[in-house]
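[agent] plan:
  1. take the single chain provided in the ticket
  2. run structure prediction with default settings
  3. attach structure tokens to the ticket
  4. add a short note for the reviewer (M.T.)
[agent] executing step 1
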Amino acid sequence: MSLAASLSSKWINVSEPHPHVLHVELHRTPVNAFSSELWADYGALMDRITHEGRDVRALVLSSALPKVFTAGIDIADLGAGPPAADNARKSLATHTHLKEFQHAIGSPERCPFPVIAAVHGLVIGLGIDIISACDIRLAAEGTQFTIKEVDVGLAADIGTLAYLPKISGNESLMRELAYTARMFSAEEALRLGLLSNVVAGGREGVVRAALDLAAVIAQKSPVAVSGTKRILTHSRDHSVAQNLEYTAAWNAGALQTADIPESLRAAKARSQPVFAPLRKSKL
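[agent] step 2 finished; step 3 output follows
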């Protein structure tokens, strides 16, 4: 059975282009605007892949639409919310809604495998939140980005302002972009530190590059890659001393893996190692 079996939904296509690699494509025409239904489905998909124990070792996220990654949140959803008897109850309902939204868009960080964003065209508002939660970000030449939220009267609240200061090595530029909502190019996003590479060839080129990268990662030990992701994420949010202690505790168990002798055997035999799934499938 394909790893992608039964995962596609109304606005999300899922395929398995390489062994242990999933390709998730957003396709809500005309511009991949995120309604509440779409972002809920997106978060549920990422968590479902992990919960079901599918042997996924890398995932590529892209848009199926030719000219846009996403135009951001569906404007029809702005200001929408459950009716409330008073302002205090409305505030509590809004807080719950925002936390659910954040949880969904932050789902790539919870995946035990790397998630690679391959973007092209326009990446607006919520699009920055989405890709900031991914491990690796590639963009096609000509991609245009904007942290759009200040133009609609709010501070970005789903992840951009939490992730970007951790991602960027240029806080001055990051703040300029967040305060002004101006468009910035793929080259400027590369300078910001948001991207690891800018790829020629438009949508097809960047998706191909991301899938090739995912295929390389998928050949590595899933124990090693998953542990590396967990330790890097912990390092981002903790001191060096705390991370070294965490790493020692983590590897005290992880070093018992059969992936180490298998890697050594394959290197000696000059063959491709064969690794067991990270967890038992529930399918």
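[agent] step 4 note for reviewer: The first strand starts at residue 12 and ends at 18.
[agent] ticket updated
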